[in-house]
Amino acid sequence: MKKIAIYGKGGIGKSTTVSNLSAAMAAIGLTVLQVGCDPKADSTRNLTGGTSIATVLEILRKSGDVELDDLVVKSSTGVLCVEAGGPVPGVGCAGRGIITAFEKLEELDAYGVYKPDVVLYDVLGDVVCGGFAMPIRGGYADEVCIVTSGEMMSLYAAANIAHAVKSLGKRGYASLRGLILNAKNIEGESELVDKAAAELAAPVIYRLPRDPFVQQAEAQGKTVVEAFPASAMAAHYLALARLLLKGAKTP
Ligand code: ADP
Ligand code: MG
């Protein structure tokens, strides 16, 4: 079982990237579990026809007596989808919600029952503390990738995430695989990300272009991989999926 956490600033394109990677890996024939770890809870929307599935926290709020099938939704693309969810606004703590969701999945033996080949965690990385650090710290992910554009704020978040992985990594937790550039098409973007990567001593493992097919697929409630399988963008997601599956831990 390969376990990869994809971090990045809010709105940078994590869920788009992760759901397309899940769809690409499922298309290769792998059993994929995607766990949305963002209070926005829209990680898996494009895998489930544009609808929101009930989150682990919502389900637990209704009843403590839950079964695995209540929490894990098998999408039409075959991807197993989970949304950790978030607290009621103003009450509780988003990070704590992720911890609760992880504990419940483990308690119900989600990994043993579904036996996924790949688990992808889609994690909000604006602050890397408490529950948001769980995929790195709790032994959940082996590798961490950071989605970023060349914009200052997303590079700032990337640096924070990289530092968290490196300091926690000393204790044998997840390692930093590298950065995924998700282009916003700002001037000199590739070079800006190269420079940031060099400072973090992490490679840029892939450069995803900005592509209008992403919005068109989204409007259909689908991933690009599902809606436009013959497109160049789908080929990019498939290439990134294959790269991540190779698993060679880049230094
Ligand atoms: P996050 O999960 O990081 O908050 P999303 O994946 O929801 O971000 O992406 C935010 C928006 O950016 C989405 O509406 C999506 O359509 C758009 N987007 C993401 N990646 C691309 C891309 N490569 N090309 C075009 N639009 C993109
Ligand atoms: Mg998201």
Walkthrough of the structure:
The chain is of the alpha/beta class. It has one domain (2-245): Rossmann fold. It has helices at residues 14-28, 56-62, 68-71, 94-107, 110-114, 134-137, 152-169, 189-200, 213-219, 224-227, 232-246; strands at residues 2-8, 32-37, 73-74, 80-83, 118-124, 143-148, 175-182, 204-208. It has an 8-stranded mixed sheet, with helices on both faces. The longest helix has 18 residues, at 152-169. 50% of the residues are buried. The model has no long low-confidence stretch (mean pLDDT 94). Bound molecules: adenosine-5'-diphosphate (ADP) and magnesium ion. Adenosine-5'-diphosphate binds at residues 8, 10-16, 182, 208, 210-211, 214-215, 218.
Overview features:
251 residues, alpha/beta, Rossmann fold, 8-stranded mixed sheet, 42% helix, 18% strand, globular, binds adenosine-5'-diphosphate, binds magnesium ion
